[in-house]
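Usage example:
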Amino acid sequence: MKRGILALTALVWLAGCSTQPVQPWERGDLARPEMAFEPDPLLAGYRRHVEFSKEAATGGPTLGGGGCGCN
Amino acid sequence: MRWRSAAAALMWVSGAALALGTGELPPDLVAQDHNGTTQRPQDYRGRVLYIDFWASWCAPCLQELPALQRLYAERAPRGFAVLAINVDTRRSDAQRLLDRLQLSFPIVFDPDGVWPERFALPGMPTGYLIGRNGRVRHVQVGFREGDLATLELAIDQALEESP
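Running the assembly step on the lines above writes:
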């Protein structure tokens, strides 16, 4: 009996995960511009510039090489 | 034994709904379109129906809808019908696109996602080609320009068949 309850509890717990994924037709709200990490492209560009200027060795998120840190 | 039945029932309830496939009957759903006309897939029996699920945020849908309009305009006299189900949560988003595209087939607005849930859509956009016998003949998941020829062929084959 105890094992049955335990198994059923585990099953309920696992089954809970199956209800989590966002369905294809529910992605509209996620596609809104305000849902982006950085909705303002100008501000995002400015932040990237500051980032790769300061983090000279990494070269920013989309550049292959490093930077001199002077620009 | 009771535990086994309960576990089986739980697995059945929690499992994802099976997507509608070829040869199956579409779910019996009723809704009003943008003109206030009652739309029900079963009422199209004897004609070839394409049920298309779309949204304004879905980029391939923007490519697909004008193509569907062309297919519909060319083949409607032969018994081809299109029923477009919009799944936008805000109707204004859909309306903005509709004003631009000028589609002549019926549009059903389903912000609560009742229709896509019953069809268990595998992706966006998805289209179901339903033959004259009322059964699904072809499922179009996603849309690329190269898919148009396949879709046209499937529609033409369905139109040639007798009910």
